[in-house]
Amino acid sequence: MSITVSFSVNGKRHTASFEPAASLLEVLRDRLGYKGPKLCCNTGECGACTILLDDKPVNSCVVLGADAAGAAVTTVEGLANGGELHPIQQAFIDAAAVQCGYCTPGYIISVKALLDRTKTPTPAEIEEAVSGNICRCTGYTKILDAIRLAAERMQQGS
Amino acid sequence: MATSEYTILGKSVPRMGGVERVTGAGIYGIDLTLENALHGGILRSQYAHAKIVSIDTSEAEALAGVHAVVTAADAPDVRYGRTLLDRYMLAKHKVRYLGDPVAAVAADTPALVRQALKKIKVVYEPLPVVLDPEETMQPGAPTLHEDMPLPKNLPPDAKVKNVCSYTAVHVGDPQRAMAEADLIVDEVYETKMIHPQYLEPRIAAARLEPDGRLTVWANAQAPFSVRTDVARLVGLPLNKVRVLSAELGGGFGGKASGITSGAAVEPICALLALKTKRAVMIVLDKAEETIATTIRSGARMYLKTGVKKDGTIVARIGKVIYDAGAYSGFGAMAGARCTNMLGGWYRMPNCHIDGYVVYTNKQVCGPVRGPGGPQAAFAVESHMDSIAAKLGMDPVELRLKNTPGPGDKIIGVTKLRDVSLGEALKIAAEKIGWGKAALKKNQGIGIATGSWIESAGPGGGAVVKVNEDGSVTVHIGKIDMGTAPRFGIPSIVAEELGVPVSDVTVVNVDTDASPWDAGTVGSRSIIVSGTAVRLAAIDARRQLLNLAAKQLEANPDDLEIRDKQIRVKGTPAKSVALAAVATAAHNVIGEVIGRGYFDNEAMVAHEKEHGSSQPFAAHACLVEVDPDTGNIKILRYIAVHDVGFVIHPAAVEGQIEGAVAMSLGQALCEQVVLDENGRTLNPSFVDYLMPTINMIPPIETVLVPGYPGAGPYGAKGAGEIGCVPVMAAVANAVFHATGVRIRKLPLSPENVLRALRAARDTPAEKKGA
């Protein structure tokens, strides 16, 4: 048995058929080929699969694909404008916050959700926004630098 | 630091490979899609110790869409292992931990794989489960490996069993020296098993090619080790096996130890591909991985140290019980390192330490970031503070009193060249405000040091090809996981060839094309591949200058490469484009190909003669202990490191910060918890606690210049040593804050609270030590 669901990913309309139990992460990665959201814990604990579901950051491994019906999904693939990286993406590179890079797509989406909400996040707001994103490489120091750098550049740019 | 003589070295240029990582490109092993591939899965033992009576695969094989079911009967009768060959890729006769691979399936869909695995009928005869290595060593304990002999170097009077490796450290006359000590401090420390928990699950894919060759895809740190093991286990020569490295989403040693790390996921996948004559891919589930793949072993460490009243250490007698897990894995190496490091990195004139690596019914020891080191340092550096407390001496003073100097030896190193330990310690003490900072109630400061040996393991090569447009393609046998291969090594090539870093590509490992290498292991990338690419780039430059000399009618010695031009020094107008020279090579030498290698034998000989350029570190932290909850908050963390010449500051800092956070996890919360049957109680990330951003303060890294290492330009490795001092630094800070010495990890709220209460109930325990 399968269900058919329509939703948009990064502005592009998709109609996909899949088993009712399939997670949104499985649908995005295995059916639609969006490899940006990463599979890791599959229990909603690590944040590597974070995407925006109608502008709200969610762990796509614990959201049913069916729940995306009619929604606008944003993955990390949707952030760059042609060849130009989003300021958050650029900040992660410039601050050397990308080591293995496996947590990076989820991190960038969580930070985007934060900076879309507030241009001047407090340290507590930053900490809360990414407290669900585990990074095993950086010790978080340079990720914090990257978030601050992105916020600063986006303030200047706006 | 004289970075000014370089254009690129010493600068934090953007990491190569950053753009594809921030844009979410499908570059990792888990993103691999092979056309028409079958899905593979592994049946794992549900007993920690049992005889396999029978395996019936007929029902699974009968399922439509199932293409192969394999067991040990389908594989050559060959065992594997890092030091001892004690393990089959699929268990034969017996299973020895809960998670041991027993059978594997290839089918059309993941759901069918799961269904087929359930239909394999294995009859087990359960055997007694032994989890504590010290109990497993007893002569009356159950036997784990009937056909593995005890180590030949065991002391003749040792009444032990299930020991797979033994190391003895013996210097001077510790018994006599101990008798002359003013104070003897005798303690036992213990660390628990932790999983490296890289985020990307392990994958393996394999495909039998039309010419009979086997292609294997692996997200492994050491692709050549995987090739060696896979070829042996499926019975093919090395030229018939090609291993392609996928990009890695983290490793930390957990993906380093050939096929041992993944519990043979690569050869099992290869066996399925050979049987089905189809491409097969296996993706491990994260919870499956937590129970089945290699881990940082727990260690129990006994140490008794004799000191004089003035703090001079005169002798140490100790014992390490190192948990190998079900098979020897990396245990022999890690256990030996732990045993040596229990002797410390201070002057130690008399010492005896016995190190036993013991089989238990647990998952297997692997080389996790600084294998054996953090465990030993937790004991050694906590013990130093205990000694200081008993002597009534300042812990920093005690360490400085025993700090070795140039030419001295320490346990495991016959001669030191220059020693940054004292300077690092003083910087750490100064930065944290040792003895000066005004502390609030329940706050404490801890200091601990560490060292690491870099001369372990073989060398490796590099090939630097200058393309006809002047761009450069670099082949090394080490993979990138946020480490030097694309975070420092491109800078070396660019510096030597006078091209921008953006013109340099370091390609991923293909064992058909890349030079052999032991892999991205042992803090060795900058030393091995850094040296090799530097020499290869110099070789390529020499070829380019010889070719250009003809075109410019000049002496090659008078030429230089600057900004992609080869020009006569002092006469910049007389020049030719690098691209034109590289193109001209087609007509003369075919192609500009520089070759370089790191000669490990020469390095070892050099260090023997001139002394070892051992890296040292000193860490300091400020913590606050909540006496009601037992929760520890790390308020400040300072990591002072000597990494020799700094090729890429941000890459080095990143390694240290990451290593500190990983060990803070082990200090504060991480452990794999087993029940009495050997079943992991916290396999998923829901229960396996790891540090999030809330637990880790910004780590303040200080790099100490002036102590050149054995790597290129005097660089040292930096990937592992950051893990070494951390757990003791935290435990010492907790002691400073509470007066309670905790000798077992983790310092979780539960354990801290229990220790605080025990100290309150028995005041003699207070003052620790």
Brief description of this entry?
The complex is a heterodimer of chains A (158) and B (769). Chain A is of the alpha+beta class and 158 residues long.
Structural notes for this entry:
The complex is a heterodimer of chains A (158) and B (769). With 158 residues, chain A is an alpha+beta fold. Chain A is 34% helix and 16% strand. In chain A, strands 2-1-5-3-4 form a five-stranded mixed beta sheet, with helices on both faces. In chain A, strand 3 and strand 4 form a beta hairpin. Chain A is globular and about 50 Å long. The termini of chain A are far apart. In chain B, helix 13 runs parallel beside helix 14. In chain B, the strands form six sheets. Chain B has a seven-stranded mixed beta sheet with strand order 3-5-1-12-9-10-11, sandwiched between helices. With 769 residues, chain B is an alpha+beta fold. Chain B is globular and about 85 Å long. The interface between A and B is large, with 51 and 56 residues.
Distance between the amino and carboxyl termini of chain A: 49 Å
Average pLDDT level of chain A:
97
Beta-strand portion of chain B reads 15-25%
Ends distance of chain B: 41 Å
Strands of chain B, total number? 26
Strand content of chain A: 15-25%
Please mark out the parts of chain A with pLDDT under 50 across 5 or more consecutive residues, or reply none: none
Which sequence of strands runs across the widest sheet of chain A?
Answer: 2-1-5-3-4
- Describe the biggest sheet of chain A? 5 strands, mixed
The overall pLDDT of chain B, averaged over residues, is: 96
Helix content of chain A: 25-40%
Q: How many whole angstroms does the radius of gyration of chain B measure?
A: 27 Å
Gross geometry of chain B: globular
Oligomeric description of these chains: heterodimer
- Weakly predicted, low-confidence segments of chain B: none
